[in-house]
Amino acid sequence: MRSMKTRVKLSFHLILTLTVMLTMAQTAWATDETKVFSNSNIANGATQNQLTYDGNLFISATGDEMAFKSNFNPYYISLYGPYQQEGTLRLYPHISGKVKSIVFSSAYMATGQGYMKIGKGSTWTNSFSENDEGNNAWKSFEFSNADGIQLENEDDYLEIKLYDATYTGSFFSKGSITITYEPTASTLTHTHNFSYSKNGSTLTATCAHNDGKDCSLASDNWQISTTLTPPTFPAYGQYVYHPATLSNIAGFTTETGATAGDITYVNNTTSESLGTSSPHDIGAYTASVTITAGGTGYTLTTSYSVGTFCGINTNYPQFTTDKEGNYALDGETVTLTFTSLYGETLTAVTATGATSGNDITLTSTGANTYTFTMPQEDVKIGATISAPDASNFEQNGDTYTIKTANGWGWFCFATNYDLAYGFSGKIVKLAGNVSSSEMAGKSGHPFKGTFDGQNHTLTFNRTAAEEFCAPFHYINGATISNLHVQGTITGGNYERLGGLVGHRYHRILV
After folding, report:
1. pLDDT tens digit string along 4-51?
2. Sign of dihedral through CA atoms 257, 258, 261, 264?
3. Phi first, then psi: what are they for 217, rounded to 5°?
4. Quick one: which H or E segment has residue 411?
5. Whole-angstrom Cα distance, residue 335 to residue 379?
6. Alpha-carbon dihedral 190, 195, 249, 305, rounded to 10 degrees
């Protein structure tokens, strides 16, 4: 029995502790907030017996009541009930939560036999009677309810009850109205406070995040942007149009409440306005759009050209361009870069129009980097490339010696791109063990010489991306001797593979 009593007491203590902790947790977030409505921002509405605050509905009659603001100093607001009846006016504070008090800083109640109270349903504040002492003078009035009057959302309203047994219930206010309330959980979320800045074609909204609550934009430096973006690859086509777009406009308008107008276009050559029709013909254009944010209009612009897209044949794997897929619009600046793969060096480089054969001016902008202006035709890149130094690959007359993996890579490259005519009539020797995944020879450019491995080992590992994968991919009339080969070739979808030779033309000697 003693142990059972002990367990009962412990259970009671645990429940009490959890209850206290829960109460403390609820108290921690249930902090009252205030919303102040200044008299100067209250105005008569568009319809009779309505008052607005900053353009939003604030107080309205439901029947024969009256609500208006005087047009002369001190510009007080007047609320009247119907004659000898209780009237109901609606007060829209645009908050969500439990309203604890409504304070009129300077108000006046006319004499008579009646009352005024504020609430909703079965929950009401204290009431003030018109014949209470001192109520017929300008003073502060506080209507309160300790438990709070629940407003479900920001469109919900409070009711103001006015009554006078002998005439009409009346109430006048010329000061501010302060509402104290306990926000609901949904209103405890952060409210953005944006400032806006424009930089070229980009509009950025920055939140001040000064309400002490978590901002959804914190990970983006409290910013969100939209950019007027030109089309990608605006190449001319008979039925193709090229509109500019606003990037992230859906997210931007959702977060900021901004509105975007239509994107309009101007032909820069003729100054002709296209209105909202996006460009089609070859030419230069400017797109514009105005975004209204925070009551201010921001005009974004971007310029681009519709033209002919042509390709750039770099010929060698060492060359790359800054254009996707090596395609560029005529008139664009193209950057061409040479990157050594095996220790080789670029001795000379040319660019030529593929159709016209015209030389294209290359401008050096740094080590192995050049720029040129794209013409209205394809471009061919030509180059003179020197072999790696003798520590990798050495030539002595008609004999070539591979000393490193880079040396083997250069041997494969020189074969594949016919820099040495397939080494026809030449002897290539292996000076040591090397490892590589490079293949020597390709269709149209096979290895034709004599290869002497000098009893060294070539370790070859490769995942096949084409048929006939092998250390010697394509050969023609070649001789291969004294070479050991080891490694793994993964065929995947390709079945024709070779441990030494992938494909031969004519006879070979191994």
Report:
1. 333 333 333 333 333 333 333 344 445 889 999 999 999 999 888 999
2. negative
3. -100, 10
4. helix 405-416
5. 13
6. -160
